[in-house]
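Continuing the series of single-chain predictions for the mutant panel. This is the parent chain; the variants come on the following pages.
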Amino acid sequence: MSSPKVSILMGAYNRAHFLEAALAALQAQTFTDWELIVPDDGSRDNTPEVARRLAASEPRMTYLRHDDNQGISINYNRGFARCRGEYVAMIDDDDRWCLDNKLATQLEFLDSHPDYVGCGGGLIIVDPTGQEMYRYLKPETNEAIRAAMLFSNPMANSTTVFRREAGERVGWYDSSIRYSGDRDFWMKMGLLGKLYNFPEYLSYYTMGSQNTSIVHMKPHLKTSLMLTKRYHDKYPGYTRAIAINYLQYWYAFLPPGVHSAIHTTAARAKRKLFG
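Parent structure:
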């Protein structure tokens, strides 16, 4: 069996009602030489039933069921181990790609720029009903991405495509990190080669009650603070970045009612400043 050009990795957890729409966005791509790997991190809803039904009608899809919830990093690493493509594209189960030529455009860029290890783009933030809340672009150039690396993750996970060989070289996700594994991954990738973000909106991102950055805000921001310290001498702006990351961590200790009242405004302000 020949290997596909692209392996698409879609992490799944308790969001069965989004799976069909996410798959449909992949099937609409003009580039069709792909496989879909769906590792399920111990869902307790009807994700197994829905995923198996979809896989029965989509031969490019492989569903990997895991009974225990072990976190995003371990779940993704299980999926990475099954990827066979030259490139890996990321998408979460509750997100959808915006453009039918997304894969084709990103593959053309990476094929013609061998010094780049990965690329991504902007996000359209929607609520669980699909209603747009706001949108933002990520830093475009490699220089701008490096300048933002200690402040925030400048690569939006569900928009990214990268070289599988590069992912293997950096050791995929750090399995000791339960939260912010994608940020650590892109910090490692940025040390290996150049990165680029298209000045286009490539994916919808669903902002809901199951987002780990909201549900597990304290450990998520604590990990973000740890990663800023881990890469303090690898990227510019450490002094300012560590101050901002401490401020974010303290924010997590505010009462839940305060979070719900200002979270969207705070998130938009952060994206405007750091991408």
